[in-house]
Amino acid sequence: xxxxxxxxxxxxxxxxxxTPWSRFSFLNEIYNNDFGYYYVALHGNKVxxxxxxxxxxxxxxxxxxxxxxxxxxxxxGELLLNVxxxxxxxxxxxxxxxxxxxxxxxxxxxxERVGFVSAGIRKGYYNDNNEDAIIMWKHLLKENEIGTxxxxxxx
Length: 155
Hints:
Blueprint: H1 6-16, H2 23-32, E1 36-43, E2 46-56, E3 59-67, H3 76-90, E4 95-101, H4 105-113, E5 117-126, E6 131-139
Parallel strand pairs: 3-4
Antiparallel strand pairs: 1-2, 2-3, 4-6, 5-6
C-alpha cells in the first residue's frame, strides 16, 4: 500500500466500518510505523481490498482487513489474509493474532477457515458501540515446513 492507494482504501473503510480509519492514520501506518506492513488487492487500478499488520519480534497482529462490498464472496479476504500470514512468516513471526467483533460472524468464519482459534474476549473493545471483541490466534508454520504438509501440533 502506498499513498496513491488511499482514496480507494478510504472508500472501502467508509462502507465497511462504523468508525473508519482516517487518511492520517493510514499515512502514519505506511510511512512512519516501522512495524507496520500494508497490502492492497487491485482489479486493474481499482483498490478492491486491503490488509495490514504489525510484526513485533515473533508475533504478527492483524490491524485491518477489508474487501469492497462489490468484490466480497470471491475469497479476496482469504487471499489477503494468506498474504499477511506468508509475510509474517517471512519476517520470522511464530504466530499471528487479531480481534474481531462478536457480531461479525462472516469474518470469524474466514479466520476459522484458515486456522485461527478463539482465545478469549476483550470486553467493550470497540469504542463506537462498546461491543466485545473475540481474540483469535494462529500458530504459523515454520519456514522449512511451508508446502510440506507437515503441520504437527508443535507448531
